[in-house]
Batch of 2 targets.
Target 1
Amino acid sequence: MTVVASNYARKENDLYQTEPWATDALLRHFPVSGLTVWEPAAGNHLMADVLRESGADVVTSDIATYDRPHDATVDFLADRFAYKNPKHDAIITNPPYGKGNRDAVRFAELALERCKGLVALLLTAKFDFGKTRHHLFRDNPRFIAKINLVDRVQWFPGETSGTEDHAWYVWGNRGVSRRSPPALLYEGKTPHLPSGAAACAADSPAANSSPPSGTNLGEAAA
């Protein structure tokens, strides 16, 4: 199946700010307390702020500076990456998509190459349908979960709602193969799972292809 481009074109270097609830939806299933998280498309740090409030140390970078300075201003997609990979346990971000989602594909490939631990990317809900992306999903032993967002993300102030459905795509530790199919989860502005269900999900074989909550999700990248 060929995936068509998103219904709206994301502008080059434009600022698409991730509402805090969307990051919270990820963290209900993949806590980051005690981890060092690299946010390489940090924008104005809305996602980085949520990660810090959840107990992570956060390293920020982006191709441009908006209202808040980053630890480094660099292009994650550059052929010659100008920023020595910071010490980190995870990469969590809403990456640029690019024409036909090509930038998003390359971003995912580089994130998996540069990070030995948890990688979580916020992308369109059909991003995993493309037949040219089997190496990221179907054929990738690190791919452990998809979290579908049942509410739409509002990217810009004044919008009543977004125009696209989105999901978190999550990969686990390098060298640790999943023991069962990737988990398919649903989250929104409020917790979607009933009380106690998140703990049950954490005990599932798919979730346990990663270390239990509170442990280091990956060695620091060189």
Target 2
Amino acid sequence: MTHALVAAPSLLRTGLLAALLAAPLLAQAAPPACPLSPDALKKVFGVAFAAGTPEPGMTGGSGCKYTSQGGNKKNNTDLSVSIFVEPPMGTPEMHRKMTMGPGHQFLPVAGDADKAVTVKHGGSVPPFPDVSYERGGYIVKLHLTGLDYLDDAKARDARIDEMNKKLLQLPRVP
């Protein structure tokens, strides 16, 4: 009888410890597939967007693609915005390197509460607007495609910087 009473607090502590360790996993429900509204996108980019289309996310997360409506290539309003909300694999830096591949630079956005970075693509990846931030236990990645390629590197970098700033103006999720 004495052994059972002595073992009970130990089992209780072990069970409590296991419950505390598992609590963040249980509390972290899967993020919604398409967390942004077309109105929020229109407010930032100045062109209408259709409702998002869910896409597979990486690492057990979710993804969504939003496509502009009525935009055109001539004035760079034929756009697509993709958002991926992913549980991190290791540190945020490690996660970005593993999911985006080698050769990219992750440039911190000064003063950003969610530790946002802009992505400067390297290697064989052509440059495009791309940002990432940490929020609610997730890594959130935003990509913008549809801009015309500019041969002039300075003009291209300036436009990518402008669009990265717009991506960072979108409502933060989750």
